[in-house]
Design a protein that fits this description.
Layout (H helix, E strand, L loop, with lengths): L2 H5 L6 E2 L4 E4 L9 E4 L2 H16 L11 E4 L2 E7 L4 H11 L6 H14 L4 H8 L4 H7 L4 H31 L1
Length: about 170
């Protein structure tokens, strides 16, 4: 999800039982979508819900990443900036140059490298075009090498089968 999409998740958008989050706030309305959650994402959403519950923010329209101004929380407004928290998180992780969008790029790239269909990736990411998918997925050299090696191996096996078949005919 893009940062603005994360910041605009409301309680009603997160379904921990079905393990999905609904993206209802995006730059483009056609990017509204339902995203399945992996275990780590599910834990993060559940933790934000627990935090909201502890603060008494239980209305379905309350944001999970809510605004805080002058030390006062307002669950009726989304968080605008998370710069301080992001810097602290990066420092603790030892990743000082990491940008939030790097996470999105990495995720999309890894999906592509595991052979997930482009349409599925586009649906998860909310991309409208092949061009946007290409912008976000940086297929690594190693994945390209593995694909070429796999093709070479397939051709090698086919040639061997052809040779074995023709040798069998000559033996008769």
């Amino acid at each position: 999800m893009a940062p603005i999409e994360v910041k605009h998740v409301r309680r009603r958008d997160a379904d921990v039982f079905k393990k999905v989050v609904f993206v209802n706030r995006a730059k483009i309305e056609t990017r509204h979508r339902k995203i399945p959650l992996n275990n780590d994402a599910l834990k993060a959403i559940a933790r934000m819900i627990e935090r909201a519950d502890a603060l008494g923010f239980t209305d379905p329209d309350h944001y999970l990443w809510f605004a805080c101004r002058h030390g006062k929380f307002d669950p009726t407004k989304p968080l605008k900036k998370w710069d301080t928290a992001w810097r602290a998180l990066r420092k603790k992780a030892g990743l000082p140059g990491l940008r939030f969008y790097d996470l999105r790029h990495t995720f999309i790239t890894e999906l592509a490298e595991t052979g997930v269909a482009d349409l599925t990736i586009e649906s998860i990411a909310g991309h409208l075009s092949r061009r946007m998918l290409e912008h976000y997925s940086h297929i690594r050299l190693n994945a390209k090498r593995n694909a070429i090696d796999a093709l070479d191996e397939k051709r090698k096996q086919e040639r061997q089968q052809t040779r074995d078949g023709s040798q069998g005919e000559n033996a008769e």
